[in-house]
Amino acid sequence: MQAIFAGVRHGDRSLPIPASQQKEIRQKQTRIAKLKSELEPYRRRTESHRFVSIDDQLSPENTSPRLEVLQTRAGFGANPAGTDPGAKDDPGSPTRSPNLSGGKYSWWKNEPGKPLVAWKPGQTGDYRLWLSWGCGYESHSTDVRYVLDRDGNPQTTDDWQEVAQVDQQRFADGTKPARRAALWSGFHDAGIVTLEPQNALLLVGGKHGTAVTADLILWESVTLSPSDQSLPKPAFRKPVQPTHNVERISPVETRFVRFTVHATNSSAPCLDELEIFSGGQNVALASAGAKATCSSALPGYPIHKLEHINDGKYGNSRSWISHENGGGWIQIELPQTTTIDRIEWGRDREGRYSDRVPVDYVIEVSETGTDWQTIAGSSDRLPLTLPADTLQAASTTYHFDHLPAKEAQAGKQLLAELKQQQGDLKRLQKSDIVYAGKFMPPGPTHRLYRGEPLAKREQVPPNAPEIFTDLKLSTTAPENERRKRLAEWIASPENPLTARVIVNRLWQFHFGKGLVTTPSDFGAGGVPPTHPELLDWLAQELIAHDWSLKHIHRLILNSATYQQSGQPNPRALKVDAASQLWWRFPPRRLEAEPIRDSILAVTGVLDLKMGGPGFSAFEVEAENVRHYHPKKNYGPADWRRMIYMTKVRMEQDSVFGLFDCPDAATSVAKRSRSTTPLQALNLFNSRFLLQQADLFAQRLEREHPGDQRAQVKRAFELCYSRPPTESELSDSVQFIQAEKLPAFCRALLNSNELLFIQ
């Protein structure tokens, strides 16, 4: 039924912050802005640092121009899961980079003095070299060498320049791992090297150890200023953000700016706006004469067009999407050559979508549209998937060690106050959270063309399916009126559907199956009723007696059909073996709940208390997740009716779970019913039933001490509601004398006459 009910909005909601607290928040925000301004001279501009990274996994087939595998790999090491140092999800620290290795490293059999792999950055200039490897095993070499090969030919050694010698059993900081595992080393600062395009970095086997490893190598562009002294880790930028990214660049004259995407976090790339700034002016706007072109655009979607890339409007509904899965480029041609100093872009500035985000990209400029120069990109950004605490650790952008002592001390004091103010602001902005729901008036409902939420068609009024009824509600009908009309139709005397379903369920509960054997499907896909006139008569009886369920219960239980014997009739079996025509009461096994409750009632320990907390059939072990173990010992707290037993999804009670209990994760119209050897064996040998057999024997001994014949008669009355025959009495007494009373009680509690309705 469409648009019958009003919507309910719920979720974590913050309580309002008091006015006095809001004033203090504004004061803190003003002070933080002032401190950041004063700290600007001390800020290390990580945006200007560029990285060239080459991973050892880049070219398994040895086809990449940046990586040459000189000797056949012996294998790969995989970092273990977890957040420990060197593990796959190691988040890093203020002095250690997070694990950027991809979780895997290469290894070779160690051959002393022999080059194993060559990294070829193909760059010119001064770069700080960051090395990483696989560590954690005693077999790794303790003295491998990293050599800068000036001519790029590993066969000639006279131009080799050693840049580092490392112990690959240890982390990059020199500490020894606490466990034996395939760990990532972290980054080792090998100092600053001057590169030429033909240079290669060689990994050369050491004199000790049987294995040599290799992993990610970074070259970080530097300026050889005093601020480029040794650092604890590479100065990466924060990860790409779906909402807004700023690329700060050295001023450059250009007319063409191209944004090329090589990979995204999912599907084809999307940008809602590409802004190019000259000073404070966005010169990329179409209204300023800039022209946009692209490699491709997604067809058929009016909200994702090329023209949206520079229209000055933000959000997914005004964006460009490439028609290439995971890649593509967008280009802005400025009206004339212009000096630009900043580029800003985002996937969705409104913050509603975080898919299709470019994570591997380059931004290039050209004055002619043919000769391109890279000015920014993703090579110096942390991975998008790193956790928030990693970002905080990675975004330390102030340092003072290169300054005079007095100036450095002043800067450190400003930074300490900034951190304190930011902490105070975070505490002030944190309000109490409540999980609250708010009933909202129902909004308009529309037919959606082909299910597309943005392709709304005509409004659909609140109503029921036309084949059933017309509720005669207007589109502005309030919620209470909608609910009232729906309830009136469901319980209307002119609506036989509700009553027929209810009385069929009652019949099913008493006989094991309904007059309609598909209780949730009375339509053409279900099974027709065996006695349609009886079903309609019972439905009318329910309506005529003010929907009294007790009246229908009495009718069924006092009927001759219910009171029939379950004895088979050979002639009837030939005609109707399944007893569809109700010529006898259909025998069936009890469900799990009445079996358990009957056993407890017979032994005299059933707790009939109504309501209150339930009981559990499991012992709960609380770890990262809750583990449920079947109980092995039972007491009075477990002897309540089974309806009060707490249900655990995907877990079954160890004793009665085999008796076709439905899983708590699903709902069923009727239970399946099976008879298996496991049911009998599990019930006969379970600790629960052995305990109940002893309690049954104790009850019989209390009521008739020493009188075995009286005990047998009482046991038959409690279990079968009848006295024993003379032969049953005689055989039972002999059994008790031979096997004792608990064994006799155990046999009765497992008998078919107790477990089946005849």
UniProtKB/TrEMBL annotation:
<dbReference type="Pfam" id="PF00754">
    <property type="entry name" value="F5_F8_type_C"/>
</dbReference>
<dbReference type="InterPro" id="IPR000421">
    <property type="entry name" value="FA58C"/>
</dbReference>
<feature type="region of interest" description="Disordered">
    <location>
        <begin position="1"/>
        <end position="106"/>
    </location>
</feature>
<feature type="compositionally biased region" description="Basic and acidic residues">
    <location>
        <begin position="35"/>
        <end position="53"/>
    </location>
</feature>
<dbReference type="Pfam" id="PF07587">
    <property type="entry name" value="PSD1"/>
</dbReference>
<protein>
    <submittedName>
        <fullName>DUF1553 domain-containing protein</fullName>
    </submittedName>
</protein>
<dbReference type="InterPro" id="IPR022655">
    <property type="entry name" value="DUF1553"/>
</dbReference>
<feature type="domain" description="F5/8 type C">
    <location>
        <begin position="278"/>
        <end position="375"/>
    </location>
</feature>
<dbReference type="InterPro" id="IPR008979">
    <property type="entry name" value="Galactose-bd-like_sf"/>
</dbReference>
